[in-house]
Amino acid sequence: MSVWQRKDHLDKWSHPVWYYSFWHRGQRYRKGGFLTKGRASAAEAKRKHDVIIEGKVFRGKGNKSLAEIFSEYLEYRACDCAASTIAGEKTRRPPLLGFFNKTPMTSIAVSDVQKYVEDRKRKGMANRTVNLELITLRNLFKFAMQREYAFQNPAKEVKNLKEVLRDRPVPNPEQMRALLEAGKAEGSQVYCWMALMAYTGMRPSESFHLSWDDIDFKRMQILVRPKQEHDLKTGRFRAVNILPELLPILLAWQTEWEQVFADGKPHNWVFFHPRRPAFRAHGYPKHFKRAVKNAGLKGFTPYTFRHYFCSRAIESGSNIEAVKIVVGHTPSSTVLQKHYAHLCQPFIDAELAKVKIV
Q: 135 exposed, middle or buried (CB, 10 Å; 0-12, 13-18, 19+)?
């Protein structure tokens, strides 16, 4: 009998619980904990429907485990995803493999994914971390279904946990001017980089992979495009307009750049290591932190420039879809509204001052 009651297994009310169990293509499917025989039978019927889809037996390519296909999955993802995305998924590999171990993917059910979420929360993981792991697991099952390693995506049935968005400090124009003014004391290159970030909303990694060939002064555009050493997060080319305030800063830095490499140009990068010009710049942590401190600000990171640009663009009345294109988001993305377009308090105060209650 495929459904039975185990009198030695009791629920919290001391009642015996029901189990179901059946075999399919050498694989056993078993689950217990049901309060009634009817519930156990219904769960068994649903499971059989999942295993034998619409009367057609699922003939996959063996009962591969999650661990066995993870490497193949990462190779597949590397074809159309940025290196940073792949690096993030690699960090989620240990907890996923540690929980599911060598369990065949065809045997992982929705309840197993729910138990994984509960286990991660019990270990004190943040909701954002667990959600990213769920996204990776969904993508992994989607890949497994394409390769006929699995017949369903149980992770798709588990909802993301509610995330509490962090309060990100968005500077007002006066604070940004103070920060850029403090950046001048850190040198022309650091000042130019800070101004570029503030006036374009670029990602830090994109700014450090710019070359002078990417800057078209005639068309007043900066071309952000994929390169061999930097694929971009989305892999999509875009053009960012050079605002009038940014133009003289770029031209001044270009003149100084030409003087630095007057005896020979080892590269054509816009930004380079301050002490080792032949090496690419990956950040100016000491200079940036000192400028933030001297400007009397707190909690600012290089990404604050990106938040500031998006917020100012929205406050100025720019179309949100146009802003998405400029900063490199897809039209369907909601990241801009959730994480970047935070309105500064003076703007909110001015808008509320327009409200007439009576």
A: middle
